[in-house]
Amino acid sequence: MKQLLFNLFFTLLSFASTLHLSISASPSKLNPLLATDSASGEISGWVFNGLFKYDKNGSVTGDLAKKWKFLDKTRLWVELRDNVKWHDGEPFSSEDVKFTYELATSPKVVSPYTSEFRFVKKVEVLDKLHLIIYYKKPYYKALQTWMLGIVPKHILENEKDIMRSSFNQHPIGTGPYMLKGFEVSKNIELKANPNYFEHKPYIEKIIYHFLPDPSTNFLMLKRRKLDVGSLSPLQLERQIDSSFKEFYNIFEMPSNGYTYLGFNLKNPKFQDKRIREALNLAINRQELIDILFFSHAKVCTGPFMPNTFAFNERVRPPKVDLERAKKLLKEAGYDEKNPLKFEIATNSNNSIRLYTAQIIQYQLSKIGVEVRIKAMEWQAFLNTIVMPRRFETILLGWGLGLTPDAYSIWHSKNAKLGGFNLVSYKNPKVDRLIEEAQETIEIEKLSKLYKEIFRLIVEDVPYIFLYIPNSITVVNKKIKNVEPSIVGIMHNEIEWIKP
Fold first, then answer.
1. 240 and 271 share a domain?
2. Between the CA of residue 156 and those of 122, 178, 284, what are the distances in Å?
3. Which residue among 93, 145, 189, 344 is least enclosed by CB atoms within 10 Å?
4. Distance in angstroms (rounded) separating the CA atoms of residues 62 and 173
């Protein structure tokens, strides 16, 4: 009786309750196997589940998997939850897991996520709820491989062209929310899944307001039209008042990502390391942070985040040395009469990146370098600049999971269309260390390998690593059960209550 009353209470509480969020770019593909941009990843994250996920403490826990154990170093036994249904009512089973693996690794799919399964040998279905995953060799990310969303076999098994399937805009998943509507450059509405295996989320709807202009997004926050949002350091320090703080709780923590200026290493001018080193010496990272972030950021020194096993604390950012930078440029054939000229490409809907590009443009002018800036709308930027690799340099951010993996972005095998090695970085020694690290499950040895990978990448200067911004998130104070954690604010959203 008590449980019945409890359920009735929360059913009434969640009636017509809506969480208002914002999104600055339209998703491209909401299939988790193809969701390579942040907008697509965020929306598909509500719709799909993996076998595993991170809990609030950053430890691996079950999602669709109920129980699991390693039978030996290369065989993982998994028992699935027995109360999971797809959004169309069909039961979820181990056949869907096997199908997802086979689809992700098939020629039908062109995706950087294919490499996530490179150590999986096969998936053996024992029955509807039990399976064994065979690995080719021991792998330190054996569980994390299966954090990628599982897709439905019964819908996609006869699909001839996955890359252009309507499923990518009208997905059916097992997640806590179902996609109600999606149009390019329009608001996105998600509806609570009444049959979600944990329980129906207490908030009935999520509406993502399409706000490509950051100033409009901030205005919506100030007008209390959004329940959750992000602030820039400038907004936090100079542009909010006491009434804003009365309505929102403010949570600040280091982000799990960095911003970088990447060189197209297939471009002849950037194949000369002296040029990359010269630019690296001329960019003042601390000045960027002081101007853009009001101390709410730190200098990025390399490809893996602080406080992880992969971070090399001995690697320091270069000291600004304009004279040395000019000397290197002159050695490479550039001077006042023949200045180095190149273009920085970035996305126009991120004001911080635009300002970063402008400051870099000014800083590099001090050594006689002429920089042009090309800023484009996100989807056009992805489709015409990023994915086909049509850039000289690119200003972007990169988000990292709690378990760093160098393979997808730094191994030469991913310097291809569809891969995340956008700058075409290739170093045989780094490749060998990455391959050795993949098979290393002893954390001390793994850490040693990754710290050496870190050092070598920084030494090669394929990127200019710029800064790690703090994440500043605001949440409507009326919302209950918000628990900030190492994995962010939204990890337990199905428990949120909005009166």
1. no
2. 20, 18, 50
3. 189
4. 17
Read off the pLDDT of residues 236-269 as tens digits, 9 standing for 90 and up.
Answer: 999 999 999 999 999 999 888 999 999 999 999 9
Q: Are 64 and 150 in contact (CB under 8 A)?
A: yes
Does 318 lie in the same domain as 439? yes
Q: Is residue 403 part of a domain?
A: yes
Q: Are residues 113 and 40 in the same domain?
A: yes
pLDDT tens digits, 67-114 = 999 999 999 999 999 999 999 999 999 999 999 999 999 999 988 899
Rounded to 10°, the helix 322-331/273-282 angle is 160
Question: Which stretch of DSSP H or E encloses residue 223?
Answer: none
pLDDT digits (tens, 9 = 90+) for 22-72: 999 899 899 999 998 889 999 999 999 999 999 998 889 999 999 999 999
Q: Please check whether residue 430 is in contact with residue 313, taking contact to mean a CB–CB distance below 8 angstroms.
A: no
Instruction: At 304, list the tokens.
Output: 């893996």
Phi/psi at 232 (5° precision): -85, 160
CA atoms within 13 A on the CB side of 253: 12
Domain boundary among 141, 168, 195: 168
In a domain, 8, yes or no: no
Phi, psi of 93 (to 5 degrees): -150, 175
Single out the residue in 114, 135, 168 at which a domain terminates.
Answer: 168
Bridge partners (DSSP) listed for residue 54: 60
109 with 202, same domain? Answer: no
Q: 121 and 198, same structural domain?
A: no
Query: CATH number of the domain that 235 lies in?
Result: 3.40.190.10
Split into its structural domains, the chain has a count of: 3
Tokens of 430: 């780094």
Name the nearest CA neighbour of 304 among 197, 446, 113, 129.
Answer: 446
For strands 341-347 and 188-192, give the pairing.
Answer: unpaired
* Integer Cα distance of 16 and 173 in angstroms: 23
488 plus 426 within the same structural domain? no
Say how many CA atoms lie within 13 Å of 215 toward its Cβ.
2
What is the domain extent for residue 240?
177-254+472-495
Residue 14 lies in a domain: no
Mapping DSSP to helix (H, G, I), strand (E, B) and coil, where does residue 496 land? Answer: coil
152, part of any domain: yes
Please report the beta strands in 243-305, taking only residues with DSSP state E, as ranges in sequence order.
248-254, 257-263, 297-299
Host H or E run for residue 79:
strand 75-80
Q: In Å, how far from its chain's centre is CA 282?
A: 29
Question: What are 4's two structure tokens?
Answer: 């019945």
Residues 6+ apart with CB under 8 A from 462: 262, 263, 265, 276, 423, 425
Phi/psi of residue 36, nearest 5 degrees: -95, -15
